[in-house]
Amino acid sequence: MATMNEKDYYAILGVSKDASARDIQKAFQQKARKLHPDVNKEPDAEERFKEVSEAYAVLSDEQKRARYDAMRSGNPFAGAPSANPYAGGYSGGYQGYTGSPFGVPFGGAQRRGSAFNPEAGADVVVDVDLSAVQAKNGARRAVKYRRYEPCDRCAGSGSVSSGSSHTCPSCGGTGSVEVDLSFLFGAGMFQTVCPECGGSGRVISDPCPECGGSGRTPVVTEAVIEFPPDTHDGDMIRVKAMGHAGTNGAEGGDLVGRARVASERLEGPARTGFYLIGFALPFLILFAVSGIVSLVTFICLAMVVSGIVSIVRAGVRDRSRLWWKRGLEQIVSGCANGLLLAFISVSFASCSRGMMMGAMPL
Ligand SMILES: [Zn+2]
Ligand SMILES: [Zn+2]
């Protein structure tokens, strides 16, 4: 989740940086009345209510507010509010890289803040195109991709010198903070995830300036993936610990190379072609058994013909067994849907015939 110094609590409440405690309470009161889940049924009302409450929980407490201002000014050790709350601001994470020429989705925004939250790193999946020959004989392929790497400066801990964490001063280690709403609704306390530690109850003692306390930094890196002989489309090869590093020294994820073998991929018109053949099949069998030929019979025949044409056009030479197996799966899937429709239309026809007979005077 976003941590304390990623959010502009002043903007959320709509007050200025030097607003008095009274202004803050008034602003919160107005917003919370409008957004309370009991009153406001808009889908995002609850989320916004939580955000407003979180902002209020921090700004209504003199100490928390001072720490928040200090953090946003880029000096976590200062106790006094700073004149420049944007100096240390960090927003947008690492999203700038999403949609890069490598085409690898980059999951998880960079966490910035002093929260101590050891979380395992995610796997990074990279698609690798292999020719039929490469897939058959095996191939070593270098891939370029983006990942979070353990931070050099703090060795992944997130803490520059001591490598340690201490109890979160905002929540006292519980991981959640309470906002007193009794002045507003008469009824008690509202609980929200602690914005300073992100719910872990601990904060970094001296956050590393390189990684901002998360213990990992975004990089573009290269790795070699070794596809063994007899690799097929969709096969996945793992390279241990080359995925995203975990936060604060937690275990990292793997790099996963996913083979894409064009000759084995059943896509587009060919895929539809197999499906159409399967779909028409139950009807054709029905017509063959009943001996009734109608317009629908010709439509079904046309479906089969166009299906075959699509498949032949996509090319059937040099296709692997996997490709044909996937084609067969499409036929079965089309057949299942065709069968269902055939069943519905037959029972509908017999049902309406039965009703007509029942309505007919004897
Ligand atoms: Zn906390
Ligand atoms: Zn670091």
Strand/helix succession: HHHHEHEEEHEEEEEHHH
User: What's the mean pLDDT score?
Assistant: 81
Largest sheet: 3 strands, mixed
- Proportion in β-strands: 15-25%
**Small-molecule binders:** zinc ion
Rounded Rg: 31 Å
Which consecutive residue ranges, at least 5 long each, have pLDDT under 50? 76-112
Number of β-strand runs = 9
**Inertia-based shape:** flat
The protein's oligomeric status is: single chain
Question: Helicity level, as a percent range?
Answer: 25-40%
Strand order of the largest sheet: 1-9-8
* Individual helix count: 9
Describe the structure.
By secondary structure, the chain is α+β, with helices and mostly antiparallel strands. Helix 2 (21-35) runs antiparallel to helix 3 (45-59), helix 7 (268-290) packs antiparallel against helix 8 and helix 7 (268-290) crosses helix 9 (321-359). The protein is flat. It is built from nine helices and nine strands. It is 38% helix and 16% strand. Residues 76-112 have low confidence and may be disordered. It binds zinc ion (ZN) (2 copies).
